[in-house]
Amino acid sequence: MIAYIAKFLKALNANTNPGEIAHGAACGFLLGLMPKDNLLWWVVFIFTFFVRINKPAYFIVLAVGSLIAPSMDGLFDEIGSKALNVQSMYEFYGFLENVPFVAFTKFNNTVVMGSLISGLILYVPVYILARLFVSLWRKHFVMILRNSKIIKVIGKIPVISKIASLVGDRI
Amino acid sequence: MSENEIKKETKETVESEKIEAKDSKEKKEKTVPAKKLPGLFKKKYTKEKFEKKILKKIYIESDRKLVESFFTESETIKGKDCIFVNLEKEIAKKDFAQLKEIAKAIGANKFRVKLVPLFAVIAFISALAIAITAFKNPIAKKIIKSTCEKIFEAKTDIKAVDVQLLGISVRVSGIAIGDKDSKEYDYKKNLFEAEKITIDMNFTQALRGKAIINDISAEGMKFGTDRTTSCYIPPKEKKKAAESKFEKELKTRSNKAIEDLKSQAAEIAGGSSVDEIVSNIESQLKTPAAAMKAKDDVQKLAEKWQTKPAELKTQVENFSESVKDLQNLDVKSIKASSDIEKVKIAKEYLEKINASIKKGDELKASFEGTAKEVKADVKSTDELARTVADAVKSDKDLAVSLIDHVTDTVKNSDKILGTAFNTVGYDMLGKYYPYVQKGIAYAVQMKNDSSNSEEKEKSESKKKEKPSKGRMKGTTIYHSRQYPGLWIKNVSASGYTETDGSKGFSGALKNITNNQNVTGLPTTAEAKFDVGDINHSGKITLDVRKSSSADLIAVNYVGKGFSAKVDGNKISPVSGIPSIDGKATLTLNGSAGSDGFSAKGEVDLNPVTLTSDGFKNEIVTKYYQEALGTIKDMSVGYSMKYREASGLSMDISGNFMERFAEAFRAAFLSAIADAKDAAIARINEKINSANGEVIEKIKSFAGIEGEIDIQNVNLDTVRSSLEAKKAELEAIAKGKVDDAKEKANEKAREATDKAKGKATEKTKEATSNATNALKGKLLKKN
User: Fold this and answer.
1) What is the pLDDT of residues B110-119, one digit of tens each?
2) What residues of B are in contact with residue A101 (Cβ under 8 Å)?
């Protein structure tokens, strides 16, 4: 996690595409909200390996999302229950249940569905917020940190510099 | 200078040198030739392209300014103004490093999707799919083959297997499963083979570990075909199950049925041939014994009195001889000189006659004493005759009653065959019960499992639905129907039961499942097929649903053309159990549950031949076999019920019992009628012959009595004549000769006639009484 934080900071202070960071944060948030014992989570997770997103931001936000998600399960359950009980969608849901492998996604579980819907709804706001954050950070804090002696000192700490070098510039 | 001052000065010198070095160092900052810049910055760009390819990808203002500061050179290339970095310049290392980082960051800003890894994964998945597609059929073939060999315990040959993964369907072509019981054919016989077997499964449910089979069909099935290779697989040892309660009770009832049958046969009075009847009844006759005793007693009496008549006769003759002169005395011709002398002479004769008369009286008394004794013995012979007569009557009645009893026994002959068939039924029940028991046990287990499966699924779903740690489990809402672990919706099969394709079969199984509560449907099986000459048609319904009140197992079956072969000797020899050989149509309607089973139906045998080794009694066996032989067709109805609480009950019904009873009775009665008359005649003959001897003896004894009476009469005659003579002589003595003579003669004649008549009557009466006592009633009876 320390490595991810370091790399995240590095990405913030470098010319990493802010969209990558924002998408990473949004994807991380989406996956963080969802329960992890279903195929749907793994599909999304594996999908993120094929898109250019900032992994440090992704994993950090995923961790944060996983921490806050249990407290929102009640909300997810309600949202999922409403979504799954839409009469007009019954046929579609029934069809999906009979499609091979789709049933493994547990889409018909209220918490899974609710967290998915919530994550999808919040994807854009999180993206916007992350993008805004990156923009503001780069506008106001990058030069300060770059020139900050403290940052330089931290960067020179062997452990951190080694971790940073091991992880590499980009995942 | 003091030492301290020198040291201080040295120190200051060193420090100043350091500062100078640092300054010179700073002055001599390392530079890197611009030629070493990343390729991105060595290119020439138009302003637009520079903006697009470089500046837009730099998000930090200072970095942008830094890059812009290096693109100072410009040139017109092909009419377009281009800017570029002066590659001859030297760039500060710090800036160079920064530019390098910026170039990396710009290079990283590529298309959102990583196409290379994506394509690599796609290629891998494709390769995997191709590999699976290429090898799925051989793998499936191997799996199917090993499974079949495990189930059927014989080698299995498969020509080809085609597996479709998406939607899972399996098509097996040319499957041949060996027959493990074909030892006599060197294990070169197939249990069955099929041209094509198709299985279509629900792939989605299969991924969930549920076997939902939409259709299973088998085409072109054939049985008992030849193999080119042996199908032998060494068998595994099986444990023998302990005898169940039902099997114990069946054995008991079967044994009891056999014993009942034997005793019923034994109850039929022994024999119906004349000799047998007579010999069986003869031992119970009283007449021979009574007659023998009577004969002996009369014999003794006869021997006792046998010589008496001769004795008496001698006595009478001697007496008669002794008084002959007196008897022949002519009183008129007595010559005397005078009447007084005549009277004197007469008195002398009178004294002689009186003496003779006295002697005669003594003799008479002796004769009467003897007669009295004889009469007493005659009375005892009468008693004996009555005893014998009673014995004869009793024996006649006995003979008739016993023979009538045999006739009555025939009336219950239907019970014999009924009991015999009951025994056959118990035997067959015992043979097939293990299979019935297995089926019922499996059905009960299924019902129990389906009852528990809901709880099991709930507990499993609780476990399964528990997501990550600390997360709410949520609710799984199903929008399509739920499936059990196993559900075969339809199985159909068609094929041939003869290798030449002359006879076929068809069948369909529906809704085979391990949880009927989920499917909501009972399992049914319908089939029509010919095996050899037998046509089978049946339906079985298995309903293990929790909410269902229907029978657990319901069976309807009709089978035509069965070869009904039952060897009664094997069940129990010499017990009347019939051996059956014929063609049967079997109907069965049955049901079974957890507490037992019931079945009823009919076995219609047409044609049928019934034979039996019969019973120990040859004559009963003879009529039994004759009766069985008259039965050419029959229907045997059966109903059986077994409940844990009430036990086993089995009832055999049908027209066979009446048919058999009629035949048996007709055969038996026609023979018994003749035998009865002949037996009675023979018994009468025996009785009569026994009696005859007694009658002869009594007759001879009666003759002795008669003889004695005759001698008595003779004596009376002599005495009478002496009396007459006495009267004449007394008359002379009194002077009345002629009158006295006449009267004496008349008296003597009367006395003689009377005595003769009496003697004759007595003799006749004695003989007649003895004969009538023995014969009269018999003659009337006959």
Assistant:
1) 777 888 888 8
2) 204, 207
